[in-house]
Target: Cytochrome d ubiquinol oxidase subunit II
Amino acid sequence: MMTLEFAVAAALFAGVVAYALFGGADFGSGFHDLTAGGARRGAPLRTLIDHSIGPVWEANHVWLIYVLVMWWTGFPESFAAAMTTLYVPLVLALVGIVLRGASFAFRKYSETLWQAKLFGIVFATSSVLAPFFLGTIVGALASGRVPAGGNGDPWSSWINPTALFTGFISVGTCAFLAATFLTADAARRGETALAAQLRIRSLVVGAGTGVVVFAGLIPIEHDAPTFWDGLTGRAAPVMALSALGGIATLVLLWRRRFGPARLSAVIAVAAVMAGWGIGQYPWVLVDQVSIAEGAGARATLQGLLVAVGIAAVIVAPALGYLFYLTQSPEWNGEERGGVKAGEGGSIRRGVAHWSGRLGN
Model:
């Protein structure tokens, strides 16, 4: 039965899924930046990453702000409990997001190679640590380690099998999404060699993440029994959809169908997130506070839904248009019938830019 509390919780969780998809692909690019190699060898990939995420990397964090505002306004007591218990991973995640953004911007304007390397290391490392700590927060909530009254143990609440596995799964899914998206971007720009390199990365990371996702289910049975019951019960069909989406993505990548592979990768990750939400339902804090118990005042919930409706009308089209522009032929230097003469020129200019720093 649809209730006002459930509607607000669903709107909140939609923001979580959106952040996992858009912000996740953004974070995952840092993993590939970190593992791209030296300045010369890694220049093509790093240039592609800059070109792909540059226009949208700040817009993606709109979803994080949306989630936090919806949570503290719609479910204030559970928000307070989580903040006073999980402040360590929260602070580490937020520091990572700030350092990541600053370093991404500063690296572009570095005058010497050592400066570019320094900011690149900070950007890439923060891109891995931020989703890891965000994942541990999810695991802490799902395993029932956040007490309703707050002020839970600041360490054991997120240093436990469920939370740590969720952190690793978060990093893996981000890297998988990013690799799939970057592969399609490289192929669309005519960078055949780079697309082939990223295709292998996508296959390896995708297979590894799939193993971690399902290996992570083993400790959950004993470490988070309530969450386990939800995952293996009502969430089982969605988890199966995630597995099918992941397998389909690997097959499409193997067959070099990069465009459709992006869609199946999105389905796989969205299904993982939906499985978490369905498995945790009806709890906000598992075994502690349910959605109905933790909801705020009725007038507040109604106001939130009105605000969400207004945002959907005003903000969603603007974000959609932004993403459309980044995929348009004009932005990517393509003609409508194919790649312009001198295809891949933007990548080669980026390689020259990175390589030119070797003399500084």
The CA atoms of residues 190 and 342 lie 9 Å apart. The beta strands are 283-285, 289-290, 334-335, 338-339. The chain is about 75% helix and 0% strand. The first helix runs from residue 4 to 34.
